[in-house]
Amino acid sequence: MNAIDAWVWWLVVAVALGIPLVVTAMPEFGMLAVGAVVAAGAAGLGFGIVVQVLAFVIVSVALIAVVRPIAARHSSRHPHLPTGIDALKGRQAVVTERVDGSGGRVKLAGEIWSARALDAARAYDVGQEVDVVDIDGATALVI
């Protein structure tokens, strides 16, 4: 096998490692593919098979040892951004129609919501600011 054949084979290996990277989304395959590309470069420069394999192994192991822990650390730090009804809990609303234990309406996040007082004995008049404790279906429970 001459030098041209060797670098072509290393590129074939890199592409073959890139396929499971795309299919499984496992970054380790990408790191191995980069190692194969470096080995292809070594073959293209005329280095022997021993240097090519060493380049592949050293680059692949170095990437897995260095990049993988960094990527794992970053992927585990997802900031919790509440969305949907979870984002409405704890917000303030303005009473637009008297709210008591049986119902009423509030303006919450720019929209009119049906509302109910969490404490059935309590009532809130128009214009009062209330805090949303929970969302029950399409009804905001307020205090």
From TrEMBL:
InterPro entries: Membrane_assoc_protease, NA-bd_OB-fold, NfeD-like_C. Keywords: Membrane, Transmembrane, Transmembrane helix. Pfam families: NfeD. SUPFAM superfamilies: NfeD domain-like. The chain crosses the membrane at residues 7-26, 38-67. It is found in: Membrane. Its main location: membrane. It is a multi-pass membrane protein. It comes from the Bacteria. One of its GO terms (cellular component) is plasma membrane. Residues 86-142 form the NfeD-like C-terminal domain. This is NfeD family protein. It comes from Streptomyces seoulensis. The lineage of its organism: Bacteria, Bacillati, Actinomycetota, Actinomycetes, Kitasatosporales.
